[in-house]
């Protein structure tokens, strides 16, 4: 069986002063990720008729420049797929994990309090073993939002699904 590193929404429209510090770590993680395992990356697309636009009035992530993935992901990802909501657990991702015999998912990226949290809930409810790599997660809501997300996550899916260590520490 295999593992998948799931990198959520590491796009130029989400890379800001509040999230940029996780980029070097995620880049390194994708470079040392075992070749026999997989890397998937999501790309959030905000449509004009999405609830993000119609209900929240949010106009972000509509242009190709904002939607563009961090460069190293294009080179290292086995799968890049679009999503239009918070969760990275889409039909396309479910097909990918089934086709490749993936039995564990490690999650990183942005935003902790939105897409990471929702994805953790969905992985938990489907019974998929997973780990959220805390060192490689941030939020555009800032540190307070990230901390709140991990507090909720720990309570809702269990602290055993949250890693405090870097990938290298886990493998040593």
Describe the overall structure.
With 172 residues, this protein is of the alpha/beta class. It is 39% helix and 23% strand. The protein has a single domain (2-171), classed as Rossmann fold. It contains eight helices and six strands; from the N terminus they run E-H-E-H-H-H-E-H-E-H-E-H-E-H. Strands 3-2-1-4-5-6 form a six-stranded parallel β-sheet. Helix 6 runs parallel beside helix 7 (143-157).
Strand order of the largest sheet: 3-2-1-4-5-6
Question: What is the molecular shape?
Answer: globular
- At CATH level 3, the topology is Rossmann fold
First-to-last CA distance: 21 Å
Query: How many domain units?
Result: 1
Amount of helix:
25-40%
Number of strands: 6
Q: Tell me what the CATH architecture is.
A: 3-Layer(aba) Sandwich
List segments where confidence is low: pLDDT < 50 over at least 5 consecutive residues: none
Structural class: alpha/beta
Strand-and-helix sequence, N→C?
EHEHHHEHEHEHEH
Give me the CATH superfamily.
Isochorismatase-like
Strand % is 15-25%
Mean pLDDT: 94
Largest sheet: 6 strands, parallel
Q: Can you count the helices?
A: 8
According to CATH, what is the class? Alpha Beta
